[in-house]
Amino acid sequence: MLTQIQSLTDxxxxxxxxxxxxxxxxxxVGAILLYFIGSFLINRLVKIFGKVMIRKNYDKSLHTFLxxxxxxxxxxxxxxxxxxxxxxxxxxxxxxxxxxxxxxxAALNGSLGNLAGGVMMLVFKPFKVGDLIEAQGxxxxxxxxxxxxxxxxxxxxxxxxxxxxxxxTGVITNYTTxxxxxxxxxxxxxxxxxxxxxxKVATEAMLSHPKVLKNPAPEVSVLKVADGMCLLAxxxxxxxxxxxxxxxxxxxxxxxxxxxxxxxxxxxxxIIIQK
Length: 275
Prior knowledge:
The protein is of the alpha+beta class. Helices cover 55% and strands 18% of the residues.
């Protein structure tokens, strides 16, 4: 009698378990199908996005970063959808992810700002590798443009790393955008000197430099007359590669030409106030 009762109990448990499996099977099959279909669509979307980035000629580092970010984000959403489909409560899990995201965001506040700035500059392209720029108090040639920081090489052969956050929100002067560069120099002469003669001598001195361009022609103009001198703006044109050679070389050539042609510089003055 007891054996029969035990058999009936086991049979009921088996029937109940079987019914649960039958009821759960469609959800499991749906979850598996959703995983394979979702994975295929995610990979397809990432490939299409990559082709668009390549066609738009965006930076490779930006392409890699955004593709990875999109794939990871969509994959997380896919697994959350699968978990919800098979009956797992994802509310607490989603809250946990949100909390973790806020904690990470607070801990990496500066880094996230640099990341956002790097993405913006890679998208809008205010400069590219090889450009001569002035930003954040530094002037140099861009040697590397990353997601978090930009590296430039200054004229004194120093490597300067600028975080992308302040770089993206500050003023950036790109000397390479329009091709040839104008080198802005100034040199003072005494008030009693002939301006036309000084202009001719300075122009000939600039043109004697092998890296100064003939077209556009170098310029010499009066910048201001004050403080006991006539300040001349001396402006040769050159290429980006030769910018610093012309910057220093022309100053030396013009100074020597002024000395040879007896063009005097301003006399230093000092005002003494007696009390």
